[in-house]
Amino acid sequence: MKIKKSKYSLRVELHGNFNLQAVRDIESLMSKRQELHVDLSKSRFVDSHAVIFLHQLMVRNAKVRLRNPPRIFYELLHILGLHNVWELKKIIEP
Length: 94
Prior knowledge:
single chain, alpha/beta, Transcription Regulator spoIIAA, 4 helices, 5 strands, globular
């Protein structure tokens, strides 16, 4: 995992899957930061722990941005019923 921290934001480039372990790692780095950018270009899998973590951040008004999420991410959002709740145009970076 490649990490870039500033006072208010955290940028993470995952080199593996976005799973419970990655959530724990990111959560420990978030501290009081209100902005999270996650590059998922090298991730092939996103699990429900990751989606729940992101949802909880957004509920607390944190700014969440994702780059190149794998297809399973969209399928998981649909299964969890979040595809109509999340503003994907604001969350997904080109």
